[in-house]
Model the fold of this input.
Amino acid sequence: MTSMTSNPATAERPRWTRVLALYLLAIALGAGSAWLVVRSHLDRGGVSVGVWRTSTLAGSTHADLYTRAVVAVGALLALNREETVYYVATTDSEGRPLRSRCRYRISGPAPDARWWSITAYAEDRFLFDAPARRYSINGRNAPLDAQGRFALESGPTPPANGIPWLPTPGDRGLSFTLRLYNPAPDLVANPASLAAPRIERLGGCE
Amino acid sequence: MNLLRYLKMRSPWYVRIEVLAGVALLTHLLVVWAIPYVIMAALSMSRPAEERGTGPLFPPMTDHTQRRVVMPSPDLLYALCAFDVRQRALRIQADPKLAGYWSIALYGANSDNFFVLNDRKAAGVPVDLVLIGPDTPEPATVPAGARMVRAPGGRGLLLMRVLVGDYGAERDAVEAARRTLRCTPLS
Done:
């Protein structure tokens, strides 16, 4: 005949298991929320100009806890803005999210910096497997018109009009990064003063 | 466990919820704080087997196969040194002799860019830096002409950038330029 009296030691164990589970849940919530907050702030915050955004604290020794974590995840080893200003665009000039299968025309005045470039990145923040390893258009290979303006087109296939092409193969998320190395002092002091390039979607997406 | 038991037995339910919320908040802040340190440590320790050694790392020209650092610039050639100046100072030397842009940037273990020197600031003078930790005494003998830089922490990463317009055409010049980098512990 079995006894109906429970052993105190075995009765204690389920309670401790519940307490431990609650604390593990709290730790999981804390860690999970940290990762979500950092991920959700990629390409957000900072200064915006047109569709372009830049963090004034990227790489800075004055960065706060969250900025530092966001930069480490999204733009590790960024230089401070006295050396380089990074602008990121994730939408076109009408606010639509960028897709690699769409064709875009990016145009504007040549940025006031010693050297500049526009690079296309897939949604994982790495380079596209682009034909001829053409990953960026920069101040050296972008022709300027008489007004000192540049223009380029991105998309999965080359444009027919001879304009510089930034290949974005496949159907993936897309972002453009505009880098200004040794920017003009005015831009360092006020990154929002950039004459921001426009990103216009051309026709439908392929 | 005794503390947990005490809280469970002595505290009303709302105190226990506050404690759990406090644990979640502390974990949240700790993870946010730790993210840059973990990523930087992983990067400092990840070194291809064929490049093992204490000298600088010279990765190939950036392309779509590079998956170590997010948003790599395809227009730059890099060289890296992981440093640890808690015990010994590090001498950093380079003489790129290039007309175009290059820079040497120092990052703390928390990913802060605490120092950068570019070709304009160097003004044609070879780079000669002595990097010391926040608490380490200055070396007894500093090489003549070397500039002292004090790091905010003991560990970190040096990243040299060399601008490349056309790697095929400029290969000899830019490869020679980045390979002038030396990271030598001072005894």
